[in-house]
Amino acid sequence: MPQNTAALWVFGYGSLIWNPGFTHVERVIAELPGYARSFCMRSVHHRGTADSPGLVLALDPHPGARCSGIAFGVAEDDADETLATLRERELISSAYLEKTLPLDLSDGRRVHAVTYVVDPQHVQYCGGLPLEEQARIIASAVGGRGPNRDYLFNTAAHLRELGLGDADLDWLAMRVAELD
């Protein structure tokens, strides 16, 4: 079992998996109990606009659910800068809530990680959209960080590479490619 050199843990379940944007000393497959990953947040900045919102992944609380992703361990010297970077990126519209939640790491450890979950009371929350509607939105939306479809394709591909394929994301990637 690796020695835990991390002073801060961060859970990535979407774009953080393939574009963390911060220095880390550990990268471990992990599961977050009690939450499901879904395209349940309208994006008016990064993957859409106020006039034509896209969709981004968020963690929606669901009893009994488990979301797989990556736990990033950050050294003490980088912890403050990492948190500042993450807050600038993830809290741009206050639709995400920053929480510290328990993660089960694939090597048997349990850590508490900074995790960004959706605020179901926020105006950008849109849980429960049918997959076909999600596909149509994702196929056409573009925001400050590029086309919404690139976000979907990158996330689905990286999850598959890690052996963490997500059936809904795989279906959405196939459908969005058809709509393109």
Plain-language structure description:
This protein is α+β, with helices and mostly antiparallel strands. The protein has one domain: Roll (Hypothetical upf0131 protein ytfp). Helix content is 31%, strand content 37%. The protein has 5 helices and 7 strands, in the order E-H-E-E-H-E-E-H-E-E-H-H. The strands form 2 sheets. It has a 5-stranded antiparallel sheet. A two-stranded antiparallel sheet has the order 6-7. Strand 4 and strand 5 form a beta hairpin. Helix 3 packs across helix 5 (167-179).
- Report the CATH superfamily: Gamma-glutamyl cyclotransferase-like
Q: Roughly what fraction of the amino acids lie in strands?
A: 35-45%
How far is the N terminus from the C terminus? 45 Å
| Overall form | globular
Number of domains: 1
* Strand and helix order: EHEEHEEHEEHH
- Characterize the largest beta sheet: strand count, sense, and whether it forms a barrel: 5 strands, antiparallel
What is the mean pLDDT? 94
Overall CATH architecture:
Roll
Structural class: alpha+beta
Backbone CA Rg = 16 Å
Widest sheet: strand ordering: 1-3-2-4-5
CATH topology: Hypothetical upf0131 protein ytfp
Portion of residues within helices: 25-40%
**Model regions low in confidence, pLDDT < 50 over at least 5 residues:** none
SS field, number of helical segments:
5
Task: Please identify the top-level CATH class.
Answer: Alpha Beta
Protein name: glutathione-specific gamma-glutamylcyclotransferase
Keywords: Lyase, Transferase
EC number: 4.3.2.7
Organism: Meridianimarinicoccus roseus
